[in-house]
Write a structure and sequence with these properties.
single chain; alpha+beta; 3 strands
Length: about 90
């Protein structure tokens, strides 16, 4: 599978893009920022985790379980590579 091509998926792209801007986040924050449904956030994070682009940790806040997600070095590198590829097709900045 071509990872760069797979990252063109809007939920994956939005999720990874958001995570490159923050130290760590939880599902509700990712959902709020990206406008994705919770199932879409879950699928996107699952894919990104499976490919080593994010780190997922589960913990508790009081009585409630909470999942925290942070981008990995590989995730940052892949996102930057993707943005570079996208810029090839954009308008020039004159």
């Amino acid at each position: 599978m071509d990872l760069q091509r797979a990252l063109f998926s809007p939920p994956r792209f939005k999720t990874l893009g958001f995570l490159t801007q923050v130290e760590k986040s939880n599902y509700p924050s990712i959902q709020e920022f990206t406008g994705l449904s919770l199932p879409d956030v879950s699928r996107a994070v699952g894919f990104l985790d499976e490919h080593g682009l994010v780190h997922v940790s589960k913990g508790r806040v009081g009585r409630y379980a909470q999942t925290e997600v942070s981008v990995s070095e590989k995730g940052i590198a892949e996102f930057r590579k993707l943005l570079k590829e996208i810029r090839k097709y954009g308008a020039s900045e004159d």
